[in-house]
Amino acid sequence: MELITEMHQLMLNPKIVNSLNKDSIYFALPNQYQIITLKQVEKPGFVFTDTLLFDNIMQSYQSHRMLRYQTNLGDQPVQLTISKSLNISDKLIENVTIVIFFLSIAFMLCIIVFNNYFFKRIWGNFFKTIETIQAYNISDVQEVKLPESEISEFNLLNRVLEKMHERIKQDYQNLKEFIENISHEIQTPLAIIKSKIELLTQSEKLDTDQLALIQSMQTSAMRLSNLNKTLILLSKIDNNQFPRKEKVDIKEIIDFHLDNFEEIIESKDIGITKDYQCQTTIQADSDLINVMLLNLLKNAIYHNQPSGKLEIICGSNNLVIRNTGKELEISQDDLFKRFTKSSFKPDSLGLGLAIVKKICDYYHFHIEYMYQNNYHTITILFQ
Question: Domain ranges in the chain?
Fold first, then answer.
């Protein structure tokens, strides 16, 4: 449409009429114009074509869009031609595209910079509060200090969290004191009861029935004492009262406990196989690891069958304890729960494996149980 409009303007230009006696006229305007005289009009109407024309400025052939129109100007048939360079349009589109591209990138960078600035300014203290809460340990002596913020809602959140921390800290201290008091107060009468029972057993005036009753009382007192110690240990683990960490040699502790169980092992004729592939040391509280390994070995020995087998495999980051024995009467899902015990051992407290699981969870160890081919297998992954 643009070329057609210019064609009409060209036809109305008086300079063209004055130049019709020439065979060809060329006008060096923004678009190239050409007039050629004809003998007669052969192809009336507009004809659009694309062609290559020599550009005097670029000194090369360039692509052009050409419009031809044959008509009579006065009595003279002529052909009017308008040629428009396509390179100018392409170059313009290219330049506009480049400019828009870089403007878009600059705009996006500005958005990112301003967003990060305002994000850090507005939410920076909030995330510091989150980090403080994530690193919070109830057994820490230091008080929790939450950063001040320019936003009143965040300050309100910090005040609520600080008050909640104070209540939790107070409840924790009360619970800790309660456990310590229970531990002290129960152990004292239990010790008295056990000592009195021992004195009774030494009496010569007891008959068989009385002696059986006293032995039953002594067994119950020992059971109550062990139950008290075990429950207190579980509570201390829950309350994170074992922060101390040191290098603990797994192999050394296993050998120590096996020596203590030597008489029971010989009486049940249990064959022991030890495979210490490497020296395994872990960072943990030595008392807790002692309790964990003691319960695992005690469980593997007491629940083993006569003339059974006990295999201990100690790898670089794992421990495997396998023992022969009857299949469990309880579900594997309930094996590590408190007070879960088999009918084969009614006198058991049912807390041994619960303590093992609690210690593993405390140190983020992974524990697995499997029964296959008459073997009970417990695997602990230390990493």
Answer: 2-88, 152-238, 246-381
Cβ–Cβ < 8 Å for 203, 214: no
Note whether 320 and 312 are within 8 A (CB).
yes
With residues binned 3-state (H G I as helix, E B as strand, rest as coil), the percentages for the chain, rounded to 5, are 50, 25, 25
pLDDT tens, residue by residue, 154-204: 888 888 888 888 888 888 778 777 777 777 777 777 778 778 777 777 777
Residue 370, classified by CB atoms within 10 Å of its CB into exposed (0-12), middle (13-18) or buried (19+), is exposed
CATH number of 246-381: 3.30.565.10
For the entire predicted model, the pTM comes to 0.52
pLDDT above 70 (res 21): no
| 230 close to 351: Cβ distance less than 8 angstroms | yes
108-123 per-position pLDDT tens digit: 999 988 888 877 777 8
Fold entry, domain 152-238? Methane Monooxygenase Hydroxylase; Chain G, domain 1 (1.20.58)
37 forms bridges with which residues in the sheet?
78
Listed in sequence order, the residues at least 6 apart from 26 whose beta carbon sits closer than 8 Å to its beta carbon are 32, 33, 34
